[in-house]
Amino acid sequence: MQELVNRAKELLADGTVARVLGWKAGDLPYNPEPAYFEKAEELVDFVYNGFCGANLSKYMIEASKLEGKTMVCLKPCDTYSFNQLIKEHRVDRDKAYIVGVGCKGKLDIEKIRKQGIKGIELIQGAELTDEADTLKIQTIYGDKTCAYADAMLERCHVCKGKEHMVYDELIGDSNETKDADRFDEVAKLETMSPEEKFAFFQKELSKCIRCNACRNVCPACSCRKCVFDSTKFDSSQKANVDSFEEKMFHIIRAFHVAGRCTDCGECSRVCPQGIPLHLFNRKFIKDIDELYGEYQAGADITSKAPLTNYTFEDAEPSIVGKRG
Amino acid sequence: MQRIGVFVCHCGSNIAATVDVSKVVEMAHMEPGVVHAEDYQYMCSEAGQAKIAAAIQEKKLTGMVVCSCSPRMHEATFRKAAERAGLNPYMVEIANIREHCSWIHKDMEEATKKAVILMRAAIAKVNLNAPLQPGESRVTKRALVIGGGIAGIQTAIDIADAGYEVDIVEKTPSIGGRMSQLDKTFPTLDCSACILTPKMVEASAHEKINIYTYSEVEKVSGFVGDFTVDIRKKARSVDMDKCTGCGVCQEKCPSKKAPSEFNRGLNTRSAIYTPFAQAIPNVPVIDREACIKFKTGKCGVCSKVCQAGAIDYEQKDEIVTEKYGAIVVATGFDTINLEKYDEYAYSQSKDVITSLELERVMNAAGPTHGHLERLSDGKAPKEIVFIQCVGSRCSDDRGKPYCSKICCMYTAKHAMLIRDKYPDVNVTVFYIDVRTPGKNFDEFYRRAVEQYGVNYIKGQVGKVIPQPDGKLLVQGSDLLDNKQILKEADMVVLATAIEPNPDVRRIATMLTASIDTNNFLTEAHAKLRPVESPTAGIFLSGVCQGPKDIPETVAQAGAAAVKAIGLLAKDKLLTNPCTAQSDILLCNGCSTCENVCPYGAITYEDKEVNDHGIRETRRIAVVNSALCQGCGACTVACPSGAMDLQGFSNRQIIAEVDAICR
Amino acid sequence: MYKIAKENLSALFRLIAETRELYLPVRTAGQTNYAAWSEDAEVDIDTLKTVKSAKDAFFPQSEGLYTVKKEGKKISVEPEALKEQDFVVFGMKACDVKGLEVLDKVFLSEPVDTFYAARRDHGTVVAMACHEPEETCFCKVFGVDAANPASDVTVWTVGEDLYWKALTEKGEALTEAVKGLLTSADDAAVEAEKETIHKILENLPYMNLSLEGWNGDALSEKFDSPIWEELYKSCLACGTCTFVCPTCQCYDIKDYSAGDKVSRYRCWDSCMYSDFTMMAHGNNRTSQMQRFRQRFMHKLVYYPANNDGMYSCVGCGRCVEKCPQALNIVKVIKAFQNQGGEK
Amino acid sequence: MSLENKEFKPKIVAFCCNWCSYAGADLAGSSRLTYPADVKIIRVPCSCRVNPMFILRAFEKGADGVIMCGCHPGDCHYSTGNFYARRRMTLLFSMLDYIGVENGRTRVEWVSAAEGVKFSETMNSFVEKIYSLGENVRLGDLRCKN
Amino acid sequence: MSSEKKQAELIKEISGVNPLKCMKCGKCSASCPSYNEMDIKPHQFVSYVINEDIESLVNSKSLWKCLSCFACVERCPRDVKPGKLIDAARQIVVRQKGQNYLLADEIPELLDPELPQQLLVSAFRRYRR
Questions:
Q1: Nearest to residue B597, comparing CAs of B488, B504, B512?
Q2: Judgement on whether residues C57 and C187 belong to the same structural domain of the protein
Q3: How far apart are CA B70 and CA A266, in angstroms?
Q4: Which of B152, B178, B304, B464 could make an S-S bridge to B345, C-beta 3.0–4.6 Å?
Q5: Distance from CA of C72 to the nearest CA of B (A)
Q6: Count of alpha carbons within 13 angstroms of residue B92, beta-carbon side
Q7: C170 plus C223 within the same structural domain
Q8: Domain with CATH 3.50.50.60 in chain B
Q9: pLDDT > 50? residue D1
C-alpha cells in the first residue's frame, strides 16, 4: 500500500495526473469508500486492503470528463470492465493512468456477519501485506476468527486470474484465489425441473426491493438513462408492484449486458438483499460460450461482441430445452 | 389525442361472409380516439376511397385504420387515398382481417372477435403514429468506377453510353487489368488482347469517360446519390499532356533491372516504363524505386532523350476531389501467395509456374516471346504436368475454401494450346473434379481429352521433387486405378487459387460496404440483388464479388451499370421515412448499433446537448436516413432505447401487444 | 410484566394470527425481512436488523390508490379500500419504533394521509429491546433507548424467555388476547438486561457522535458548504439507503394500465434518483451532488427545522451496513465535524 | 363461474417479418389454410426488430405463448437481420427456460413468403402446444389477469 | 449402437477428424511414402471409416505400414488427416490388446534392417505414452 501511496504522490507531483482515484479509509474496520485525492497530503487517508472490493472502472466515466488525467487503481478483474468501457467509448483511455493493483481476494463483510460475528471493532489480516490466511476479529462480544477464504466475495472464488487486461503500470502481487468453476451454480440450476427453477428464482427475486444498486454499480449498465427510468418502452418502474416486474427487470438487465458483462461480480456484491444476481449474467455467458464460442467481455477492445455478431451455422432457438 | 376513422371493408363476401362487419364497426366506436367508423362493400374501390376522403375532411381525421386485406395488397392504395384527402399517408394503418382472419376461420363469432382485436391493435398503433415525410436527396449525375480491368471498363462504357459522366480510377499505369495479361480466352480461343484492346480504346476515347490511371481512391464520404471522393493521382514523373508515347525513354533508360509486373516478374523492365505495348494511356511512368535519378540524383537520361520535354522529376502526388452519385467497385483479383505450398516446389524451381505465368510464357509479348520453354534453361519441355486446385477448396489456413471457378477451363485451354502447337509435348492434368458448367464449356474440355489427347488423371499431386538433372518428379495418385504415380516432368503448372485484390479491404472500409470472410464484397441479396452492395449506391462488378470468368464478368459489369444508371437517372431520391432515429438525450454513443447496421448508416458525432439543464458534449449516434433501410436491428441492439424506428416504434409495437393481450 | 418461554413462541404467533394479521421478521433465501406469518415461515427474531425496516407494514413499498375502469365508453373510478383489519407487527426495534414517530409527523399532520392513518389505527407494535446491539448502531445519538423501546408492547429477551410488558391500550388488548400463553413475572431480569444493554451501548464506536451544529439554523451554512462536493463523489445514486431507511417517506405516484383498467398506485421513491421530482421542465436538482445533499440536509436540517428539532434519522445503521460503496450518514456528520474547526 | 369450468382460450402473439413470414401468413390465408383464431399477428419490418422487451411485455399482459417468424437464415431482406434475431431469441428463450418458464411457450420459426403451408402448420402445432401447457401462470402481471 | 458403429465413432473421437470433410482429392495417397506397401490406401481409409467397416481396417496391412510421417496430415487441404485416422485405428487395436502391444524389450527381435528407423521412433511415440 505504501508503494501505491508513494507512486500516487510522484504522479501528482510531476503533473502526470491531476487526481488519484482509490479508496479512503472508513470509520469502521471494513468500510473504506472509493475516493478522489487531489493533493499529496490527502493521501494520508488512502487505503488499499481486503475490503476495497469496489470496481472503480465505472467512476472513470465521470472522471474522463474532468480536466487532466486520473490515476485509477484497478484490480485484475476491474480491468476487464475498463476495457469494455473503452470499447463502448464510455471512458477515455488517454484520461486514465491505470495502476494495476495486486489482489489476494476481496472480503465481504456480509459473509463475516453470516458467521454470527457481530459488534466488530477491529479486523486483522485484511491488509494486502498480511500473509495470514485467517482474519482475527475483535468484537464487543469477544474475539473471533474467520478463515480469509471463507470471508471472500463469491467472485473471488471463481477469479478470472491475476492478469491485468489494461494498465500503465503494475504495483503489488496477486494471489490465486480460484477454487470453484464459475458455471457450477448455473449448471446445477439448469438440471433442475422447471418447477424447482421457478421456485428458486421466485424466492430469490421476491427479496428484490428495486433499489437499483445492482444497476447503478454495474460498469456495463452505463446508460445515461436506463430503459426502466424512461418512457421509451413504457417500462418505467420504481417498485416491483407485481412479482412479474422483478423478473422483467432482472431478465432485461441481464439481456442488455449480455456479451458486455465481464462478470465482475459487483451486482451480487452490492445487493442489499443478497440476491445472487451473477446467476443471471453467468447464464448468458455460459450460453454464449457454449453456443457461439468462448468470449470474455473486456479481454480486448477489438473483438465483435456475441450479440452484434453471427455465423450462418448458429444454433437455432429451438436448441433451448434440447440441450443437456 | 388522435381523431381516428375506422373503415371496415366487406371485400364482397370475402370478409363479410365470416366476419360480422357491423359488429366490428360497433366495437370501433368503443375505442379511444375513434370519431368515425363505417363499413363498405369494397373500400379499395373508387367509391370506397371517396368515402374515406369524405370522412377525413368532414371529421377532420388525424389517423385512420382500414380493416381489409393484407397491407401488402392495398396499403399503398389507402395511403395514396389518404394523402389525396390531405392526411399524411403514414397515419394509415391496416388491420388485416382477410388473409389473417376471414379466410382462415370458419366460425363467425370467433372470426369477428379476432377481427375486433386486430382492429384494436391497429387503432392502438395509429394512436401513436406521427406524420412522416419521405426525405429527399439529390443525385450527382456522375459515376465512379474503381478498377480499370475488363469489369470496370465494361461498366464505365455502359454507363457512359447512357449519357452519364464516368470516372475510372486504376491503380496501375494502364487500364486493362488481368485480361490484358492473358494470351487466349476460353472457350473460343480468341486472342485476349485482340478483344480487349478495342474496349480499352473505346473507353479512353469516350467523351463521357475520364480515366485516372496510376491513381487510388483515398477517401470516401457522403452517401447514395451524393458521394464525395478524394482520388490520389500518384506522381507519374511524366507530363501526360506533353508525352507522345514514342518510347525512346524506355529504350535508353539505363536501369533495366526492375521485375516486370505485367510479366509476373518473369523478366525485367526499365525504370521508366509502360506496362505493355497496348497500354492506355500510352504514357510511361517512372518507377522511383528503380530510377537511378531518384536514387542517386545522377542520370537524367530520359529527360535528355525526350523530344517533347515531358519528363518531370519534380512532379508530386495530386489529390483530386470529385462528387459522384454512384460508385461501382471492380477491383478484381490476384493469385494467392504460394509460399505455404512448399510441396509443389514453386519457390525452389523456376520450372514450376502458375497458370497466369504460363499465360505470359505463351504470349508473344511475354518473356519468351511466345515460345514454350523452361524458364530455368530455355529448353523445350517434353512433359508438362498441370496441377489443379492449388489453394482452392482448402479448409486449412493455407488456401481458400472456395472453388476459384476458372481454373478447370483455362487449364483445358492451356493443355489444348500446347498440344496444338507442340504435338510432341505430353500434357498431364491432375484434377480432383473437372467443373465445366457454362455454354460450350464441357464440350471444350472434352475436346482437350478427345481431340488433343490431354491425359487427365483423377487424383491430387502430393509432392513435386526437383531432380538434380533439372527434371521435376511429380508424385501423384490415380484414384481410379488406385495407383500412386511418379512422373518425371519438365514443367509443372499450378492452377493457383484466386483471391480478391488485397486493396479491397481498404476500399470496402471506406465505402462501408461489407465483405465476407474471404474478402469478397457482399451483395445486398445473394439471389435477388447480386450486383448491389447492401450499402446503397455501391455496386459490384467482376471478381471483387466472387470468382467468375470473362463472360460472366462482362455480364455482371453490364448489370452493375444498369443499376447505377437507374440511380443516376433520378433527379432526387425519395427516402423511406421509416428509418431509425436516435434520441440524443438517451444515446450513450457506445457504438453497439453501428456494429449491427448492414448499411453503414450510423455514424457518431460529438454533439452539444442540453439534458434538462446539463450542457455537455456527447458522442451521439447519427442515422443517415438516405442509407437506413429501416430493418430495426439497431433498435434492439441499443440498450438504452435511444434508437427507435419511425413507423414501427417501440411504443407502437408495445401498444399492439397490449391491445392483443387485453 | 409477563413472560413466555421462547419455545412457546410459535404457539403465541399462531394465537395472534387467529384474530389479527401478524407481521414479523421472516428469513427468506438467506435474508431476514418483515413478512406475514404463516405456519411454514422461517421466523427469525434473533437477527438484530432486518434488511428493510418495518416501515412497509404502515407505508408499503407500493400501495394502490384507486382503479379506473372502462366499459365501452363508460368510465368508473374505484378507490382502494383503507386498511380495516387489525394487525400486529412483532419484533420492531427501538429505532424502527422511533421511525414511526418520524413518519407520523409527516403523514398524520394535515392533510392526513388516510391510507397511513388507517394502518396506524389498526396496527399494534410489539417492540423488542436490542439484546446484542452492533457496531453500526447509533440510536442513542438520536435519543433512542435500545433497551426500552416505546411501543404498544415491549419484549425483552432474557435467556430462554421473552419478557412481555404492555404499555398502551392497544398493547393491553393484545396482551388480553394472548394471556393464556403468558405467565406473570417480575422486573428483575428485565432490569438486569437493560443494564447490560446500556453498558454495551456505551462502548459502541458511533455512540458518541455529536450532532452539534445540525439544526434548522444551520441551513445556509450547511447548504453552501464545499464539503458536499467531496462527499458525494463515490455515491452511485442507487436508492439502497432510502429503501432500507425506516424514516424515508418520499413516494411517487404512477399508473399501471392493464387492458381496460388503469390502476393508480404510489411507491417509494428515492431522492438519489435522477428522475426524483422530475417535472416537465426537468429536475430541480440536476447534479448528483445536489441529490446527495438533499437526503442528508432533509434528515438533519430541514426536518428538524419543521419538527421542533426532531431529526429524521433514528440511528438504525442500515445505510451504514448496506451502502454498496460504504458511504453513510455517519461519515457525512463526521466530515462536517472534522472541517468544523476551520470554518 | 369457477376457473375450472372456464374454457381455456389462449392468447398467442406472433411477430412476423414483413418480407417473408407476413407474406407467408398472407399465402396461408389466400390458400385457406386454417389455424386457430387464438393467434394474432403483429407485423414488423424484420425479425431483428423484435425486442426481447416485446416478448416479455406480451407475457406480462397475459399472453400464453409468443412466436416469432422471420425469413430463413441467409434470405433476410436486410441480409443479416435474422442472424441477430436468432442469437437474441436463443439467449432470451434460454433465460426463460432457466428461470423455470416452460420453454414451449416461446418459439422461433423461419417461414418464407412461399411457405403458406408451413405457416399454417407451424401455427397449428404451436397453438396445440400452448393448449397442452395451459394458462401461463409463471410469467405475467397479476393485475392483467381477470 | 452396433459395435462397428461404436468403433467408427471412437476412431473419430480419438483422431478428432470429421471424415465427411473429405473431398476425395487423393493428395494423401499421392504424398504417402508407404503407398505401395499398403493394401488399403490412405484416401480409402476415410471411406472405410465413413462406411463403418472398421473390421477391415484393423485387419489391414496398411495399419502397420503407415510410418506416421504425417505427410498426409500436413498436406490434406480439407483437414481430414488420414494419418490420424490410421493412428486412431491402431489405438483401438492397442486398447483391445491391453495397452501392451509393443514393449521396448520386444524390439530387438522385431528389428528388421529393411524397416525405416523412423518407424521405430514413431512406434515408441505412439505406443509407450
A1: B512
A2: yes
A3: 50
A4: B464
A5: 5
A6: 26
A7: no
A8: 142-179+189-230+321-332+502-568, 334-499
A9: no
Q: Would you kindly state where each structural domain of chain A is located, as residue ranges?
A: 2-171, 184-319
Q: Is residue C312 part of a domain?
A: yes
Tell me if residue B595 falls in helix, strand or coil.
helix
Q: Contact at 8 Å (CB) between B538 and B155? A: no
Q: Looking at the domain assignment, is residue C76 inside a domain?
A: no
- As a whole number, the mean pLDDT across chain B is 94
Cell triple for E48: 472405410
Q: Which of chain A's residues have a Cβ under 8 Å away from the Cβ of B401?
A: none
Task: Please answer yes or no on whether B629 and D78 come within 8 Å at the CB atom.
Answer: yes
How much is the pLDDT for B239?
95
Tell me the fold of E3-127.
Fumarate Reductase Iron-sulfur Protein; Chain B, domain 2 (1.10.1060)
Q: Look up residue B177 and give its three cell numbers.
A: 487489368
Nearest CA in chain B to C259: B662
- Say whether A209 and C31 touch across the interface (CB within 8 A): no
| Chains touching chain B, criterion 3+ CB pairs below 8 Å | A, C, D, E
Band (C218; pLDDT cuts 50, 70, 90):
confident
CB distance A256–B654 less than 8 Å? no
ipTM score of complex: 0.85
Of the candidates E28, E43, E29, E25, which has an alpha carbon nearest to the alpha carbon of residue B434? Answer: E25
* Residue B452 three-state SS: coil
Q: Using one digit for the tens of pLDDT, what is the confidence trace for B337-377?
A: 999 999 999 999 999 999 999 999 999 999 999 999 999 99
Query: Tens digit of pLDDT per residue, chain E (129 long)?
Result: 678 888 899 899 888 899 999 999 999 999 999 999 899 999 999 999 999 998 898 889 888 888 888 899 989 999 888 998 998 888 888 777 655 555 556 666 666 666 666 666 666 655 544
**Domain B576-646: which CATH number of 3.50.30.40, 3.10.310.20, 3.40.50.620, 3.30.70.3270:** 3.30.70.3270
CATH homologous superfamily for the domain B142-179+189-230+321-332+502-568: FAD/NAD(P)-binding domain (3.50.50.60)
Residue ranges covered by each domain of chain E: 3-127
Rounded CA gap, C272 and C285, in Å?
Answer: 10
Chain B contact probe: residue of A85, A87, A227, A232 with most B CBs at under 10 A: A232
pLDDT of residue C274: 87
Look at residue A128 in the predicted model and tell me its pLDDT.
Answer: 80
E21 closest CA partner among E92, E100, E110, E82: E82
Q: Searching chain B, which residue's CA lies closest to the CA of residue D124? A: B104
Contact A234/B651, CB-based, under 8 Å? yes
Provide the residue range defining the domain that includes C237: 216-250+269-340
Only one residue has cell 413499498, namely C61
Backbone angles phi, psi at B171, to 5 degrees: -70, -40
Q: Which of B657, B658, B662 to mutate to test the interface with D (most CBs of D within 10 A)?
A: B657
For D90, the closest chain A residue by CA position comes to: A317
Asked if residue C229 and residue C151 are part of one domain, the reply reads no
- Chain C closest CA to A230's CA: distance in Å? 9
Residue A283 has pLDDT above 50, yes or no: yes
What mean pLDDT, rounded, does chain A reach? Answer: 93
Dump pLDDT digits (tens) for A4-32: 999 999 999 999 999 999 999 999 999 99
pLDDT for D5 equals 42
Cβ separation of C282 and B612 shorter than 8 Å?
yes
Q: Which three cell numbers stand for residue B431?
A: 484434377
What are the start-end ranges of the E strands in D7-132?
12-17, 39-44, 65-70, 106-110
pLDDT at B324: 97
> Which residue in chain C is spatially nearest to D61 when comparing CA positions?
C258
Residues of E with a Cβ under 8 Å from any B Cβ are 21, 23-32, 35-36, 41, 43-44, 71-72, 75-79
* CATH architecture, domain defined by B334-499: 3-Layer(bba) Sandwich (3.50)
Q: Which domains does chain D have, with CATH numbers?
A: 12-144 (3.40.50)
* Neighboring chain C residues of D144 at a CB cutoff of 8 Å: 258-259
Distance CA A99, CA A92 (A): 15
> How many domains are there within chain C?
2
User: What is the third-level CATH fold of B4-126?
Assistant: Rossmann fold (3.40.50)
Nearest CA in chain D to C263: D143
